[in-house]
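#structure-requests
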Amino acid sequence: MNRSKHSWFLALAILILGAATSVAQSRVQLVQGRRVVKDKVTFVVEVAHEKTQNPRYATAPEDMQIFTRFADHPATGMVYVDGKALGRFDESMSFNSNLVDVTYGQHAMTLVFASPTIVTDFYVTIRGGIAREILEGESAVSFPPNGLDQRLVELERKVQELEAQMATLKKKRVQ
């Protein structure tokens, strides 16, 4: 009787571990240590397909979340993704975004501060995709787009949304 209880617990543990690993998450740490930022800093992250090719994530990953911490004193500012405001933090020691829809491709993550700040951590977590930082020296650093650049970013996002809708409609038609 005692041995069968242990077998059931082992089977349950294996099932839980399998379920936890089936939800793919990719996390990239963009700041390690202490990074002094005068007013803004931008990171470029590429979101790619998983190796497993899960059909659930054929058109886009599930979502993205950003987390960052500040050192020494509270900070005030905003977080932008591809030039669009994601969230604001006021006199805070950290920022943790809500879950955000994201597409495959490159995305610019920008932190803008009201006064000089020290960033100690900056994480981007993607569910259903793989994230990696694009390091190309100074060319990888950009600022929130404005004017014509902003319009271009919006149009590219709309094209990606329409492509995702087309793929969904094609799947429904095949079934």
